[in-house]
Amino acid sequence: MIKKVLFLIFLLLVLIYNLVVIYIDKNMSNKQDPSIYNSSFKIWASRGLYNNKAEQNSITSISRAFNKGALGVEVDFSYDVEMNLFIVSHDHPIKGKDGKFIYTKKNGKLLTLEEVFKQTGKNHYFWLDYKNLGQLNNIQTLQSIKRLEKITKLNSVKNRIYIEGSNPIKISLYSEAGFKTILAIDPLPDNNIFSQILINFYKIIYYYNNISVLAMRYGYIDNPRYGTNTHKNLKDIPVFLFHIPNNKNLLLNLVQEENVKVMLVGKDKSINRYSIKDNRGNR
Fold first, then answer.
1. Contact criterion met (CB below 8 Å) for 101 and 129
2. Tens of pLDDT along 63-122?
3. How far apart are CA 69 and CA 256, in angstroms?
4. How far is CA 77 from CA 59, 180, 272, in A?
5. pLDDT tens profile 207-258
6. Where does 43-104 have alpha helices with state H?
7. How many CA atoms lie within 13 A of 256 on its CB side?
8. I need a surface site. Which of 74, 79, 111, 141 has the fewest CB within 10 A?
């Protein structure tokens, strides 16, 4: 008897799951935001265009990428609650003996998002990888939002930044404040039998939360996470891709996919592929 009840519950859950997915697929087009980045120049710079690790996420590397033709750049940062500042750094800070966080410095001093926007923000786009969003409580998150509203208003870049996090609840708080947001997901390889199930769960989270974009690593050329099936399942959702192999044919194919809006080429490498664009020709 218990087995029959459990089996019926399982069937009911499967039915509900499939009905929800069908409903979302039918109505996903109503969620599309025309203000999402839609240039034919989709390849941005990851941490700028740098010559060595020390230059990553620096004014020098970011400016160099923009000067070489990149329209946007991915920047890593953390929010320091005590200082009420957004500190630009890929490395997670360590705690000093006094309990305060110690961050990697640029040219001998802390680099803040405010300074990045001030020096490089004019007419440019930013993919902001939020390193410690999941470690903040709701009060701290709301405090950080107030700070970001202030510095983006001062530098007029609010509509040109995309804030990335893996916590849909926390990232939605930024969406509610009018920021464009990215939910970072980690799908299975496209040929995995459970890949579509996981992707559909991500779609459900995306649809029922106020999120702008999904972001994921591309994977390997011969075993991609963003392959044919994943593309088909996400065709109505704006997607940002990172860790894309530096293969020209692959890049030329990906830029033609309408829902792929932004691409980062390579992993822990600085690669200039900014001139590759889709066939529309608009900037």
1. no
2. 999 999 999 999 999 999 999 999 999 877 777 777 778 788 888 899 999 999 999 988
3. 19
4. 13, 16, 22
5. 999 899 999 999 999 999 999 999 999 999 999 999 999 999 999 999 999 9
6. 59-67
7. 7
8. 141
What is the predicted pLDDT for the residue at 166? 94
State what percent of residues in the chain have pLDDT above 70. 98
CA torsion, ordered 128, 219, 230, 200, to nearest 10 deg: -60
Query: What is the DSSP secondary structure assignment for residue 106, as one 8-state letter?
Result: B
Report residue 17 CA to chain centroid gap. 26
Query: Which run of H or of E encompasses 46?
Result: strand 43-46
For residue 263, what are its two tokens? 């691409």
CB-neighbour burial class of residue 138 (10 A; exposed 0-12, middle 13-18, buried 19+): exposed
Please name the amino acid found at residue 198: L
The CATH number of domain 38-265, selected from 1.10.3210.10, 1.10.287.130, 3.20.20.190, 2.40.10.270: 3.20.20.190
Cα 88 from Cα 124, distance rounded (Å): 17
CB atoms closer than 10 angstroms to residue 51: 11
C-alpha to C-alpha distances, 3 to 6, 10, 11, 16, 54, nearest whole angstrom: 5, 10, 12, 20, 60
Tokens 């360590």: give the residue: 94
The string of pLDDT tens digits covering residues 265-283 is 999 889 999 999 887 655 5
Domains of the chain, by residue range, sit at: 1-30, 38-265
pLDDT at position 90, please? 84
